[in-house]
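Progress note, sequence design subtask.
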């Protein structure tokens, strides 16, 4: 039986730049009406002018006949000017500012080193009602990699919600029971995105049959108890949790190396993968809210009016996709996915 929902939005995606856009943009635009585009290019997107130029490059890569809107963000640094925040909000084209703790993930070396020193910028964001999008992990080498999200919440996020009660916050790609509980107990200004791969995999998937570099992501996969907490949150119908793929393309040779990049590529089959989870839980009826409504409401956008249909029709994921002059290995490469999507 087909299942029809409003066209979805992606709350967190990496498209990269240059030649890669010709391959990443069609994948997301195939199904999604809008996507919140991450600014961690190299060099990062730190100003309104850079974001608008990046937006134009993305739009040029949208296949003819598809209606897709990139929702642009800026990259927060120790030197971000509050007036740049003001200009960004006034432009109507910037939908959030991304906080990467310096060294937390791919291209985060120019991220924030002292969150306590960001008072002026955060106060301006609160005043202008521009959301802060948070990669919520500490980079303290003494903290175990599996505890970095929990410790970030305790050390930084909880105090942040107290200091700036009017600041809208998105805790991105949450991975733990503690994150689920914190978001649920936080004020309505707090939301969270959840990825398909964190719903489908626990940390055992990193080592099945040997080291699996294409399952390596940041934040890393966690224990089964945390995966179950994410599934419950995503399928609960709670509007604080919405779809954000964190689809992150890397060339195959940069994943399959002695120091591989973090990121899982799911843009080729994102909605189909989420449908698998919701169907397994008996909650396909709640997928539309998670995928198509809650993000729009949080970001103060109109809900999408076009529709897509999920069809129980299996297909096999290719072993590779092109990525600029290289290629990438997608999630579930060479394996079957049991749902297909038809765009009306």
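Output:
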């Amino acid at each position: 039986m087909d299942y029809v929902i409003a066209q979805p939005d992606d709350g967190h995606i990496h498209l990269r730049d240059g030649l890669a856009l010709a391959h990443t943009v069609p994948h997301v635009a195939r199904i999604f009406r809008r996507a919140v585009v991450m600014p961690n290019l190299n060099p990062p997107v730190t100003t309104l002018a850079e974001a608008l130029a990046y937006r134009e490059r993305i739009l040029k890569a949208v296949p003819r006949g598809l209606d897709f809107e990139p929702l642009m963000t800026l990259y927060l640094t120790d030197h971000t000017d509050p007036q740049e925040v003001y200009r960004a909000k006034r432009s109507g084209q910037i939908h959030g500012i991304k906080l990467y703790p310096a060294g937390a993930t791919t291209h985060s070396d120019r991220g924030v080193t002292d969150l306590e020193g960001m008072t002026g910028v955060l106060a301006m964001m609160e005043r202008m009602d521009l959301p802060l999008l948070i990669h919520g992990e500490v980079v303290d080498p003494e903290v175990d990699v599996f505890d970095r999200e929990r410790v970030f919440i305790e050390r930084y996020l909880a105090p942040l919600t107290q200091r700036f009660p009017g600041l809208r916050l998105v805790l991105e790609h949450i991975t733990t029971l503690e994150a689920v509980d914190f978001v649920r107990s936080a004020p309505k200004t707090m939301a969270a995105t959840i990825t398909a791969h964190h719903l489908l995999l626990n940390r055992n998937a990193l080592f099945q049959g040997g080291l699996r570099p294409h399952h390596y992501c940041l934040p890393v996969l966690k224990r089964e108890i945390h995966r179950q907490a994410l599934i419950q949150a995503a399928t609960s119908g709670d509007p604080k949790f919405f779809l954000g793929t964190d689809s992150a393309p890397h060339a195959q040779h940069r994943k399959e190396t002695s120091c591989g990049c973090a990121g899982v590529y799911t843009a080729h089959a994102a909605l189909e993968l989420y449908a698998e989870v919701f169907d397994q839980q008996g909650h396909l009826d709640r997928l539309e809210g998670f995928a198509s409504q809650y993000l729009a409401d949080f970001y103060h956008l109109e809900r999408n009016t076009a529709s897509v249909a999920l069809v129980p029709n299996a297909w096999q994921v290719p072993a590779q996709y092109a990525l600029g002059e290289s290629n990438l290995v997608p999630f579930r490469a060479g394996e079957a996915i049991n749902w297909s999507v038809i765009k009306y």
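The chain has eleven helices and 15 strands. Work on this subtask will continue into the next period as scheduled.
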